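Whiteboard transcription, Tuesday session. T.W. wrote the structure tokens on the left side:
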């Protein structure tokens, strides 16, 4: 069984990337959904210093305010092999194939920012879907496959509170990425996709409308997890710091058996947990 910790959008929260806590939790891998710190290169460097398998995809904020693409290039370079945008990152051990979605995505169907076009070039929705699909084809068939994206796929609902629903402007609509949805359809022709992890659309809804629905499971059994708890730091009743991670467990057969949101104390103890999914065969 694989135990995966997923860090939502960091947005420059340096303390939320707590290396000592991650070491105590000792997940088999750490997945990072992007929007690290508006182009601050200390963050990708810190991710590379962590002593466990890590995969990351850059988000729309990682270009900073630089439309030239140079900041994106530096961020990608600083992440090195950790970055899996449009590519396969094989984490073996522990035995996990991670394929990245389109990096730098702001959601909203299919939109390429000036920085993205400058750094990675122009491409169509179907070109992008094919890049993701081609990366998945390279994954060993016996390893569980996780798609890691900054913005989630379209098709998960059009209400503001859906995993990729637009909540900042009316009318609410589906703000997911169409190329990622298309890639999932294509990949499933040859293998299952047990888990799709993403961020970007923050859990806390605008205008005091409550919290977003962060998990969806479709009829094919794919689990979609929005990990964008922002901010990822909090304090308990005594003022002690807490850190947030989504936590997912994947069975040897490649099924997601548990998904939850957890707030941890610095010593690794769980302060509170919201269970999002557990296998029918296991007690919740
Ligand atoms: Fe974002």
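and on the right, the sequence the group agreed on:
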């Amino acid at each position: 069984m694989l135990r995966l910790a997923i860090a939502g959008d960091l947005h420059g929260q340096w303390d939320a990337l707590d290396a000592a806590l991650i070491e105590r939790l000792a997940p088999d891998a750490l997945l990072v959904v992007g929007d690290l710190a508006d182009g601050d290169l200390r963050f990708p460097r810190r991710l590379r210093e962590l002593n466990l398998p890590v995969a990351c995809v850059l988000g729309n904020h990682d270009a900073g305010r630089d439309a030239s693409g140079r900041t994106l290039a530096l961020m990608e370079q600083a992440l090195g092999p950790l970055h899996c945008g449009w590519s396969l990152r094989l984490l073996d051990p522990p035995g996990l194939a991670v394929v990245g979605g389109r990096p730098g995505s702001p959601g909203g169907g299919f939109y390429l920012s000036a920085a993205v076009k400058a750094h990675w070039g122009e491409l169509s929705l179907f070109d992008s879907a094919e890049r993701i699909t081609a990366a998945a084809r390279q994954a060993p068939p016996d390893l569980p496959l996780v798609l890691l994206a900054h913005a989630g796929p379209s098709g998960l609902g059009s209400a503001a509170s859906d995993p990729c629903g637009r909540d900042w402007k009316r009318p609410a609509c589906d703000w997911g990425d169409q190329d990622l949805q298309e890639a999932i359809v294509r990949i499933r022709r040859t293998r299952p996709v047990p888990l799709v992890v993403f961020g970007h659309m923050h859990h806390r809804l605008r205008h005091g409308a409550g919290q977003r629905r962060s998990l969806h499971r479709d009829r094919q059994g794919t689990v979609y997890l929005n990990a964008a708890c922002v901010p990822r730091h909090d304090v308990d009743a005594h003022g002690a710091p807490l850190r947030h991670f989504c936590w997912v467990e994947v069975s040897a057969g490649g099924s997601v058996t548990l998904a939850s949101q957890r707030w941890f104390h610095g010593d690794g103890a769980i302060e509170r947990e919201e269970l999002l999914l557990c296998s029918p065969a296991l007690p919740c």
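Someone added at the bottom: The first helix runs from residue 19 to 25.
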